[in-house]
Automatic annotation (TrEMBL):
<keyword id="KW-0030">Aminoacyl-tRNA synthetase</keyword>
<dbReference type="GO" id="GO:0005737">
    <property type="term" value="C:cytoplasm"/>
</dbReference>
<comment type="similarity">
    <text>Belongs to the class-II aminoacyl-tRNA synthetase family.</text>
</comment>
<comment type="subunit">
    <text>Homodimer.</text>
</comment>
<dbReference type="Pfam" id="PF00587">
    <property type="entry name" value="tRNA-synt_2b"/>
</dbReference>
<feature type="binding site">
    <location>
        <begin position="260"/>
        <end position="265"/>
    </location>
    <ligand>
        <name>ATP</name>
    </ligand>
</feature>
<keyword id="KW-0067">ATP-binding</keyword>
<feature type="binding site">
    <location>
        <begin position="250"/>
        <end position="252"/>
    </location>
    <ligand>
        <name>ATP</name>
    </ligand>
</feature>
<keyword id="KW-0648">Protein biosynthesis</keyword>
<keyword id="KW-0547">Nucleotide-binding</keyword>
<keyword id="KW-0963">Cytoplasm</keyword>
<feature type="binding site">
    <location>
        <begin position="332"/>
        <end position="333"/>
    </location>
    <ligand>
        <name>ATP</name>
    </ligand>
</feature>
<dbReference type="InterPro" id="IPR002314">
    <property type="entry name" value="aa-tRNA-synt_IIb"/>
</dbReference>
<dbReference type="GO" id="GO:1990742">
    <property type="term" value="C:microvesicle"/>
</dbReference>
<feature type="binding site">
    <location>
        <position position="101"/>
    </location>
    <ligand>
        <name>substrate</name>
    </ligand>
</feature>
<dbReference type="InterPro" id="IPR002315">
    <property type="entry name" value="tRNA-synt_gly"/>
</dbReference>
<dbReference type="InterPro" id="IPR027031">
    <property type="entry name" value="Gly-tRNA_synthase/POLG2"/>
</dbReference>
Length: 513
């Protein structure tokens, strides 16, 4: 645990030191659970967003984009259920005065049991090697069976209790499991209470006549209320999807873990409209497709897993998370939900307007069912950043800090370094920059010895360093250094564009799906 905490502290520290993420309003001592993306962070975030958008919209003929407003008519949130049901179950510790999400306390406890089972599996795998049959071991080893059964029992009970709104049983479960305050070890808990997460605001010139509004807690509703507008203007045929990225806001009382859980965050969502009765086929399709997208980035298959929901939201008939192994354990990265026709029917009821599709093949009108994919952009940033940050011991015994970002996402694709700041080398370097910047985000760096510049670019995640030296003046060749291997090649200046493009092209990366 201590090691994981140290890793996470290094992630937070590195993000600030190298210009990726700053605490918001830091000159005023910051604002809890609100962060600013700095000069390198904004580039990495943009690249993740574009990687998602290209795969979701550009590569699918039947998916189009939308950018709905953050402020929506307040009845939107009554229809969606957010006014009445968008709550977190919170519990306070009487001794530490700390507040926690009750469901997260139980889920973290269940995850520890799962990790005990995984530890037994990993030990057996190491002992038996290639002869190891993991599935057989899971179904026959008494200790693993006991751990997994206990985990399942806890998760199912939590799901039933939350689904029934039985907060007393949630507290009883916490007490039966003897779950303690993570910081102090105290088990002196208050009752569990629900807390609504929406931020309220006002619309109007005067307080007397102002309309009560909410900052949107999710981007999905902007898609649903525009369903018919998009379908008709785009002549879309079911099945089709509407994708959107944008800010959402939640008054998280127990926001924590850096940018994992924030009060202002960004979502990348796609709502896929299908014929009633075909939703489960598309639900399975998008579960598989979205995992392939994540795996295309090369962050390690072992870092992902599915988690099927025991407790379903009021609008869903199936739901699963793609969980990622963050420095603090497996947590939700993306949700795939079969939302049925709940949202469109609710907006029909509250607006008094039909939101139906005429299916020419069936010759009938119906309210489509919806399959949703929703990934947190900030969580995606954290998954990529934390997994890529590494401390390496080199052959000579020295160490280096390297941010091995997928090259397609790296904020800067190449840094051009003149060996010395004289003899015409800076001028040649600038000429290379002028040529490459039309296609790539490139940087110029002439400060310090070239070795220190290499280390600086390694820590920034730059895939290539291009060194201009005196030989360049003679034969128009440069040294190109690869971040991950530190291998250096002598190449023609004219070849640089092709070399970089081959490594950073979204096409090449997405074709791994």
């Amino acid at each position: 645990m201590a090691k994981q905490e140290d890793i996470f502290k290094n992630v937070v520290s590195h993000a600030k030191e190298y210009g990726f993420i700053f605490p918001s309003s830091e000159v005023y001592d910051g604002l809890s659970a609100v962060y600013d993306y700095a000069q390198n962070g904004v580039e990495l975030k943009k690249n993740i967003r574009e990687y998602w958008w290209k795969s979701m919209v550009q590569m699918n003929e039947n998916i189009v984009g939308l950018d709905a407003a953050i402020l929506m008519h307040p009845t939107t949130w009554k229809a969606s259920g957010h006014v009445d049901a968008f709550n977190d179950p919170l519990i306070d510790n009487k001794d530490s005065k700390k507040r926690y999400r009750a469901d997260v306390l139980v889920e973290d406890y269940a995850e520890k049991i799962h990790q005990k089972a995984q530890k037994e599996i990993d030990k057996a795998k190491a002992r038996f090697g290639d002869a190891f049959n993991e599935q057989e071991f899971i179904t026959t080893n008494a200790r693993v069976i006991e751990y997994l059964a206990k985990e399942k029992e806890i998760r199912e009970r939590l799901g039933r209790s939350l689904g029934a709104g039985d907060l007393d049983d949630v507290k009883a479960l916490i007490e039966e499991l003897e779950i303690a305050d993570p910081e102090t070890g105290s088990k002196n808990w208050t009752d569990v209470k629900q807390f609504n997460l929406m931020f309220g605001t006002k619309l109007g010139a005067s307080a007397e006549n102002a309309m009560d509004l909410y900052l949107r807690p999710e981007t999905a509703q902007g898609i649903f209320v525009n369903f018919l507008n998009v379908q008709k203007s785009g002549r879309m045929k079911v099945p089709f999807g509407i994708a959107q990225t944008g800010k959402a806001f939640r008054n998280e009382i127990v926001a924590r873990q850096f940018i994992f859980r924030m009060r202002e965050f960004e979502q990348m969502e796609m709502q896929f409209f299908v014929r009633p009765g075909e939703e489960m086929k598309w639900y399975e399709h998008w579960k598989e497709t979205r995992l392939k997208w994540h795996l295309s980035l090369g962050l390690g298959k072992e870092n992902y897993r599915y988690h099927d929901h025991e407790k379903l939201a009021h609008y869903a008939n199936a739901a699963a998370d793609i969980e990622f192994n963050f420095p603090f354990g497996f947590k939700e990265l993306e949700g795939i939900h079969s939302r049925t026709d709940f949202d469109l029917k609710a907006h029909e009821e509250y607006s008094g307007r039909k939101l139906q599709y005429f299916d020419p093949e069936l010759n009938e009108n119906y309210v489509p069912y919806v399959v949703e994919t929703s990934v947190g952009l900030d969580r995606m940033f954290l998954a990529v950043f934390a997994t890529s940050l590494k401390e390496e011991t080199l052959e000579d015994g020295s160490t280096r800090t390297v941010l091995q970002l997928p090259a397609v996402l790296a904020p800067t694709k190449a840094a051009v370094l003149p060996l010395v700041k004289k003899d015409g080398l800076p001028e040649v370097s600038r000429k290379i920059i002028e040529d490459l910047k039309w296609d790539f985000n490139v940087a110029y760096d002439e400060k310090d010895a070239v070795g220190r510049r290499y280390r600086r670019q390694d820590a920034l995640g730059t895939p290539f360093c291009i060194t201009v030296d005196h030989q360049t003046l003679e034969d128009e060749t440069v040294t190109i250094r690869h971040r991950d291997t530190m291998k250096q090649d002598r190449v023609k200046i004219a070849e640089l564009r092709g070399i970089i493009e081959n490594e950073v092209s979204m096409k090449n990366w997405l074709m791994k799906m």
